[in-house]
Amino acid sequence: MTVGEIAVIVLAAGTSSRLGRPKQMLPVSSVPLLSLTLDIARNWSHGPRVLVLGAHAEEIRSAVDSDGFDVAINPDFAAGQSTSLRTGLAALPETVSGAIVLLGDQPLVPRQLLTELAAQYNPSTDIAVRPHYADGPGNPVLLSCAIFAELMALTGDVGARNILRKHRDRIREIDWTRSPAPRDVDTEDDYAALLLDWSSLGAPDVPAFCQRCGAPMSLQERHARLRPVCPSCGFTWFADPKLSAVVVLEVGGKIVLHRRAMTPARGLWSLPGGFVDRGEDIESAARREVWEETGITITELTSLGIVSERGEVVVLAAYHASAPEQPLVKSSESLDIGAFDPDDLPPLAFHRDRRIIDLWRATR
Questions:
Q1: What is the average pLDDT value for the chain, to the nearest integer?
Q2: 242-363 to CATH, choices 3.30.1360.120, 3.90.79.10, 3.40.50.300, 3.50.90.10
Q3: Cα→Cα distances 248→38, 89, 116, 301, 305, Å
Q4: What pLDDT score does 300 carry?
Q5: C-beta separation of 99 from 93 below 8 A
Q6: Are 302 and 295 in contact (CB under 8 A)?
Q7: CA–CA dist 66, 307 (Å, integer)
Q8: Contact 243, 234 (CB under 8 A)
Q9: 3-state secondary structure (DSSP) of residue 176
Q10: b/e for 56-90, b at 16 or more Cβ within 10 A?
Q11: Considering the entire predicted model, what is its pTM?
Q12: To the nearest whole percent, how much of the chain has pLDDT over 90?
């Protein structure tokens, strides 16, 4: 059996009518929600990646890093989800044997699930592959090229459900009952619940196996949010916040910023800073991060306070430091580095950068 290219299509063209504001732009851990969803498939190597936009397309494109994705604009987005699915499929080359459809408002889909969908797909027998969660079948779904023509004939605010029902005997389901279906965002209550989930599950170090007995962890609701729980021994894993030291560094009266080379917020500007190592005091971490990211050695630090936000994985200890004018040296994690007039700053990567700069302004 030979499997051709498998594409990923991210649907993010909706009007967010029930929410009343663009869900794609909702801040989660200081970046737009859609950016986190795109990160799930950003390194997908099995075929093309397509992002479908419609409502608020220009605003979204200016704020969300779509690097690595072909952006397809759906001019008929108001007519419903079928138009976005058709737009995504029309953007694919004929070489693909299937396409994984990922919803733009589901940033907690595990990356490994996409790989598992592709690994289980048999194009000679399957018209779709989908996960079966603890609460039933759900998204994302891998759709075979064998039904692309039927999908292209869809109209109205419908997805592939009716076509999948028609071919139910050729749908392969993979066991993902260790987790509930990923939450999507349609209302403010959904958004608040997603932020709680993200606080527990958005960090990259969520364990796959129990630290006590070694059994695979599942996701269950514990203490008002979704958490990794061992179904064998009952152990619940609690995610501690990450502590980062961030510095408003003045050089010759200007603020030093670096342009991020990594996701999230690749290509946008941020204050120098980074995680505090275990056993390292916070001020030493601030000095180390400034030197690593700018090439400048600082001694005196003034505390600006602690910054944390709902849904954030990171808690920030903010400082101010000054240094004389000197050459800046960017790190390997930066695309560029520069010193900017405080009243004329470039687009900042995170909302927290703006908050910390505002704290600094209040001390001037």
A1: 92
A2: 3.90.79.10
A3: 30, 46, 43, 10, 12
A4: 94
A5: no
A6: no
A7: 28
A8: no
A9: strand
A10: bbeebeebbbbeebebbebeebeebbbbbbbbbbe
A11: 0.77
A12: 73
Q: What sign results for the dihedral spanned by CA atoms 129, 89, 39, 35?
A: negative
Residue ranges of domains in the chain: 5-176, 188-229, 242-363
| 12 SS3 class | strand
Residue type, 241: P
pLDDT of 74 reads 97
DSSP class of residue 64?
Answer: S
Q: Give the span between the Cα atoms of 41 and 13, in whole angstroms.
A: 17
Question: Alpha-carbon distance 312 to 28, whole Å?
Answer: 7
The residue type at 181: A
Q: What is the pLDDT of residues 186-196, one digit of tens each?
A: 999 999 989 88
CATH code of the domain made up of 5-176: 3.90.550.10
What is the total residue count of the chain?
364
Distance CA 344, CA 266 (A): 20
Please give the full DSSP string across 102-169, using - where no structure is assigned: EETT-TTS-HHHHHHHHHH--TTT-SEEEEEETTEE-S-EEEEGGGHHHHHT--SS--SHHHHHHTGG
pLDDT per residue as tens digits for the range 163-186: 999 999 999 999 999 888 988 999
Q: What is the pLDDT of residue 205?
A: 67
- What residue type is assigned to position 127 of the chain? I
> How far is it, in rounded angstroms, from Cα 55 to Cα 34?
13
Q: How confident is the model at residue 1 (pLDDT cuts 50, 70, 90)?
A: very low
Separation between Cα atoms, residue 11 and residue 50, nearest integer Å: 9
- And the tokens for 170? 């050729």
